[in-house]
Amino acid sequence: MSDSLVIIPTYNEKENIEKIIRKVFSLAVPFDILIVDDGSPDGTGNIVKALQKEFGGRLYIEERSGKLGLGTAYIHGFKWALGRHYDYIFEMDADFSHNPEDLIRLREACLLGADMAVGSRYIKGVNVVNWPMSRVLMSYFASVYVRFITGIDVQDATAGFVCFSRKVLEKIPLDGIKFVGYAFQIEMKFKAILYKFKVVEVPIIFTDRTEGVSKMSTRIFREAFFGVIQLKIESWFKKYN
Which of 58, 97, 163, 183 has the most CB within a 10 Å radius? Predict the structure, then answer.
């Protein structure tokens, strides 16, 4: 029985889903996987359910009706994990932009004392492969902006490759998390730091997807830009114990 659960939200990831599942299950450290699928019309959920016959007791799927957003998918997954025995809960993309091998390094960081380990693209320079320069600059300066507004010392504030120790997710009021895109990732890091948890960054190389379609949009970027200001203002009026 694994103490670690990898949550992978999906929407139309039929090109990647079987490969990412098999790769995670091939690692030297055992991980369970929870797929949170938002009713993918391309049959992603059916692929996962077929694989459950092979990976019984290690592979799970929660199917939701409609595209409800990344943040709500992770909150759904967090609550599912907290209802079970897992000590370490991970966020990871389905498209291999996050190297599954790095799951072991993130887990190791938490074993060594971190409460939240972030797979960081920017802790040692800029480690991004296959992104156009415009998107690299947008992502990098988004993190600079977040640090300036919030004051948190996290180089890659929008990172979506994360390991949480159980106590972090038990402490943060998950029903109070309001954002769904990049702002969700910022909000989780910001709240963890406000609650005095130890957040560390683990350097990774981020490789843009080669199959499937990116879910990035101007709406998601706009939410992050204005959401950061909202998070900071709200933090002035609430106690975090």
Answer: 163
